[in-house]
Structure of Poly [ADP-ribose] polymerase:
Amino acid sequence: HEYKSIVSNFDQAMKGKYTNIIKIERIQNERWYMQYLAHSKDFRKRLEMNTEKRLYHGCPEQAANAIIADCFNRSYAGVNGTVYGVGVYFSSDATYSHGYTKPNASGERCMFLSRVLVGKTTKGNSTMRTRPLGFDSTTDEKHIFVTYHDAQALADLKRQNFLLQFDHRRTLTVIEESNATVYQPMNDVRFYSLDGGVTHKDSDWANEFRSRVLGKPSIKIKSIHIHHTPDIFDPDEDYVGLIVYLCDEKNHFILNNVHSQTGDIYIRRSSWIFDNTPKRRKRKAYVHGRLFYSIFRCWKKKKMNLVGAGFSYCKGTWKFNSRTLNTMSPNNNDDTYHNTDRKLSISEERIIRTMCCYFYINHEWLAMPPEERIPFHALKQLGLTEEKSQISGRVNDISEVDPDRRLRGKVIWFDVQKGYGFIDVTGFQVGMFVHWTAIDGMTRRRAFLKHGEDVEFHVVQSDRGWKTRKLTRLKP
């Protein structure tokens, strides 16, 4: 989906100016990410709003390689003009940035699609060598933005920076599969880490776990991902969670049409689990088993050979034990990576706790693309800092939610005659408007929602404010 979105936006802006996208690379740099993260938090706290924009930056291939290594360096500012200030130039118009690209020996050009913190802007001029007092960047008040701090834009872990390489000679290549057009996936990913590899000097931050049985593969956690279907955190509620490691000794697997991989985290509200999943005979709460059922639509069985770890948030405290998952039980499990005390290792606890504290409880995951993953090294560095993430009971700005993110909520009111109503979503101060036309697969006569019904949807901005689209009912 990410690839298609980039191609679609680029194609609309560049009609007639290129004929082929050769490749799209995701550039990730851990060192610049940490600086950008601090900068982003400062902007949000100071301005009380999200001022991040996705902008283009065109340059020759040699300059692109320098940006990949050193990010957007202001020491090169002024090479192509200083009309709106002596800084790094970005544009929301791809055709404008295209004017600063140059073909290489093969006739290919490249362009960056970056996440940029524009902050508070003012109109710039050629005399400005730094940002004016009280402002963060300058602009032409149309599509050009000039930044004056190296950490205002970068290729990093959380805010990806994409390098598009294209030419003017060949036709756009697509892969035809049945009757559907499938775009070539982004296989080219360059990742630049600080020290080049994972070290295990700090025993509390190991990311490789070995089985007690010889011949079984190790669990290697390279990245962590909050799955795109969690319930939004409310400190007054209880939650149950699962991190997936292996299934049938594979770190990428599909179980009942659900794709998962090592490091995927699923989190659901406990009350929802109890209300929407069946009970099992002779088992009382069986909360992690029922969480598993809600995800994969089947009960966990030994023959599945699935290895994972269960945790929960109960009465304001994170707990890291589970009878269903974190145990070496020959009766219902083939987990040879844990012992019999139902508890997780210190390293597992560190990984889960840090991910939840820095990306889940403060709703930071809502601003991330649904498939975005946090590399282990970046998470470890966050976990070793003294800063603690604050619990947020509300999200202040719906515009911070990534447009590809699907939200979950509960119908609080719906007028069948008028065909509209409102949905309550934890983390938002007002109810989300829903019109019957937003309900997928429904005609006017059948389009209605029941009070208390659980639904999932995208949000989109209209001339009357934010509303839902592509709404579906959640199956119990």
Q: What stands out?
A: The chain has three domains: 2-191, 208-383, 400-473. The radius of gyration is 24 Å.
